[in-house]
Design brief:
single chain, 5-stranded parallel β-sheet, 13% strand
């Protein structure tokens, strides 16, 4: 859920649950067929080219190891294929960061190393929210959920982030969530174990009413413009972004960052 500001209205904001959804199940570094019904046809010629929506949802639930509590809440399992895939990405990130942070300390005295992370489905898991709303995001339902409910951390990401911070990386959160959701977002990150600075200098949310001067596109920024422009602003403050983490390719494109890490997310697609 949480991808507040970065979410677009229902269908356009997330070109969702179709072949693109199945494609993202392979998550690592490349997504095939996003926005396509098949690799051959962008517009299906017959119904046989369109995955059955119910079956796609069932695959998503199986991938996350859907677990239902006695009160009907849905959660992802730490033994799921999703959790296994996430741990593999985190292991690669930790190996890379160990070297990158050590090297940065030896070679650069002009900048401080930093990592940038998206929030929804990168550091906080929206699976429970998505199941509650039937994979149908609305600003209203998201506000209601965030105001009263903490999302779980993406498996292991809290430990990776805290470790990187202890190793000398400045940590920045960069989310499409709207500015009005700041207090809820900070509360959630703190409550689930992100022990890093969470002030306004370290957590960037989308403010369409009062866009920052460093974004030339102002209130009309695309996700890529907003994210890459903010990363460039962070680097202008004296940081070198050694790693950028996101569950959407729009979180990662646009430059300003030495390496990107794509987190898996088959639930929606944000251009």
């Amino acid at each position: 859920m949480p991808r507040p500001a970065r979410f677009r209205p229902a269908l356009s904001r997330r070109a969702r649950l179709g072949a693109a959804t199945v494609a993202t199940l392979v998550a690592g570094t490349a997504v095939f067929g996003i926005g396509q019904a098949t690799a051959e046809h962008s517009v299906p010629r017959t119904d046989k080219e369109i995955p059955n929506l119910t079956q796609v949802q069932d695959k998503i639930k199986a991938y996350y190891g859907d677990t239902v509590t006695a009160d009907g809440e849905h959660y992802a399992s730490p033994r799921s294929n999703y959790a296994h895939q996430v741990r593999g990405i985190e292991a690669k990130a930790r190996t890379y960061l160990s070297k990158a942070l050590a090297q940065h300390g030896r070679t650069s005295k002009q900048t401080k190393p930093a990592i940038v992370l998206d929030i929804d489905d990168t550091t906080l898991l929206t699976y429970n929210y998505e199941l509650q709303v039937g994979f149908h995001y609305t600003e209203e339902s998201q506000d209601k959920y965030l105001a009263h409910t903490d999302m779980d951390p993406v498996f292991g990401m809290d430990r990776l982030v805290n470790w990187a911070h202890d190793k000398g990386a400045e940590v920045f959160f960069l989310t499409g969530r709207k500015e009005a959701q700041r207090a809820w977002s900070i509360r959630n990150l703190k409550n689930v174990g992100y022990g890093v600075p969470l002030d306004r200098r370290h957590v960037y949310l989308k403010d369409k009413e009062h866009p920052p001067a460093y974004l030339p596109c102002g209130a009309t920024c695309t996700t890529i413009e907003y994210k890459s422009g903010t990363r460039k602003h962070i680097e202008s403050l004296g940081y070198n972004i050694v790693a950028n983490f996101g569950d959407q390719y729009s979180d990662l494109r646009g430059g300003a960052g030495d390496r990107t890490f794509k987190m898996p997310n088959p639930m929606y697609y944000l251009p």
